[in-house]
Write a structure and sequence with these properties.
Layout: H1 3-30, E1 47-55, E2 61-70, E3 76-79, E4 91-94, H2 99-135
Antiparallel strand pairs: 1-2, 3-4
Helix pairs in contact: 1-2
């Protein structure tokens, strides 16, 4: 496999990983206010994607998603005694999701996705230019 194909496969693995990061961030934001149905039920717990370096079939170093881990930080609490999930003290446990952090993660994943896409476009452009030279 050529170096250009290896570069494309590495960038493609990066795009796949960033897509998973974006999906997990979107799930976190979507559930940012999802409390449990009763005081004994845990609210939604934030997830963090686990990315790992891997050697691709092309021999290039790529990235692979190994799953997602739960963020074990404390849940937020809010005083709302009328909520069905409120404890005896009137506080409701809410997800440990900070939408600002999730939006920053989403923006970073989007930028990384775009950078990998630009790498693929550059590699394709180089291949096309080389083919044009060979046709002359």
């Amino acid at each position: 496999m050529t170096d250009i194909n290896a570069a494309i496969s590495a960038a493609a693995s990066g795009m796949r990983a960033q897509t998973v990061r974006m999906r997990i961030a979107a799930e976190n934001v979507a559930n940012a206010n999802s409390a449990g149905a009763n005081p004994n039920e845990e609210p939604f717990r934030r997830r963090i994607p686990l990315l790992e370096t891997t050697t691709l079939a092309s021999g290039a170093q790529g990235v692979e998603v190994r799953g997602a881990a739960f963020d074990m930080t404390e849940f937020r609490t809010e005083y709302n005694p009328s909520h069905p999930a409120a404890g005896e003290d009137g506080y409701v446990r809410l997800p440990n999701v900070d939408t600002l952090v999730e939006m920053m993660d989403l923006r970073e994943a989007t930028r990384a996705y775009e950078a990998n896409l630009n790498m693929i476009e550059a590699a394709r452009g180089m291949t096309n230019r080389a083919l044009e030279l060979l046709r002359r």
